[in-house]
Amino acid sequence: MNAASPCTAVCACSGSQSRRPSGKRLELPVANRANARLLSAPAAKAPPAMLPTEAANWLAGMLSQGADIGEVYISGPGDPLADIRPTLETCRLVRDRHADLQLGITTLGINGEQYAEALAEHGVSTVTLQVEAVDPAVVKNLYAWIRPGTKNIPLSQAAGLLVDEQQRAIAALQRAGLMVTVRTTVYPGINDSQVAAIAERMAGLGAEKMILIPCTACLNEPGPANKPDNALLAALGELAGQYLATEIAEPTADGMSPATAEGDPVVAVGRLPQPSAARPNVAVVSASGMDIDLHLGQAARALIYGPREDGLPCLLSTRALPEPGGGGARWEKLADAFTDCFALLTSGAGENPRNILSCHGITVLVTDGNVEGTVDVLYGGGKKGKQCRR
Fold it and tell me: Where are the domains of the chain?
């Protein structure tokens, strides 16, 4: 994914000074559950979330390669507060291993009041709250659905609940000592009249900064997006700047968080692992030898692919897997036997083996693609294999 371009600061009002880390931001997509969907959201299904151990290992790999990372954010593909367990576990792993990195999350704010203290206790210091309106009638025109719990509720009821949850979340997060930035996507004719009200309301509750982002997609309408022009954005920035330090940011092509005005680009996490000198190979479980068509729990052997002398990946050998049974001990043995592999391809795997193998530096990728084509993708080749999912 490409890093975002620096945005332009529109104005800055008086208030507390931003606690900015040195280095770039790395976004870890470990939030496995969504609690809302905007009408403008892409139609394509979101990629699956990483496991906390996978995310922590990815971060460690980036740092070992010299990446200039000063801040880690949990952002997507769902909402970090919809299921707090992977969020807190990721925070714990990052804090234990990299105490110097600043931790943050991007959230809609539902459950924010409930989890504010837990976030602070796990080292989170900054929260980006996505607030598109403070009027429930406008919220209804922006969202396809809102799910505060495990079931959808009528949008007319959920819109008011979201507004209330966001406001209580900001107050609770501020009391817990977290810095809150409000992020608002501007949809001309829909919520642009709300921007000043959002800034005033959020400032009164303890938010410290506001980021305005021009929309890139229509809200369930045909034709090109009705994007706000620079004049409108500048005017809205001036209005919001009466209450909060305000910036205007260009969205990235993939919809990830923008960079900040100070110039630190966002580093969006990659979705696939990469080979290293210590782990150059890939293990594949396959019944046919042609397709990735075997569940890891049923596999007795694995095909080992890796680069040959000219650098092209090829089949190097086959390797026996530990006998079925034994629970976690089997996966520990497998990890010990595959210390040269950075990834394992399978058509299915439980969370327990994925966690154990990830702790040993082996990412389990679930796919039903062609073996050689998918292996080729992992080594930076063509796109012949189907999309891998974690």
Answer: 8-268, 281-378
- pTM confidence score: 0.74
CATH 3.30.590.10: does it fit domain 8-268? no
Ordered DSSP codes for 296-345: GGG-SEEEEEEE-TTS-EEEEEEEEPPPS-STHHHHHHHHHHTTTEEEEE
Helix (H, G, I), strand (E, B) or coil at 230: helix
Measured from the Cβ of residue 273, the count of other Cβ atoms closer than 10 Å reads: 24
What gap in Å lies between CA 16 and CA 284, rounded to an integer? 53
The dihedral built from the CA positions of residue 140, 141, 146 and 148, taken in this order, carries a sign that is: negative
Task: Convert the pLDDT of each residue in 192-209 to its tens digit.
Answer: 999 999 999 999 999 999
At residue 24, the 3 state secondary structure works out as strand
Which CATH topology does 281-378 take?
Answer: Nucleotidyltransferase; domain 5 (3.30.420)
Residue 209 tokens read as: 């900064």
pLDDT over threshold 50, residue 6: no
Alpha helices, H only, the chain: 52-64, 84-97, 112-121, 136-140, 155-175, 195-205, 230-240, 328-337, 351-359, 371-378
What are 380's two structure tokens? 């930076």
pLDDT per position as a tens digit, 196-242: 999 999 999 999 999 999 988 766 555 555 788 999 999 999 999 99
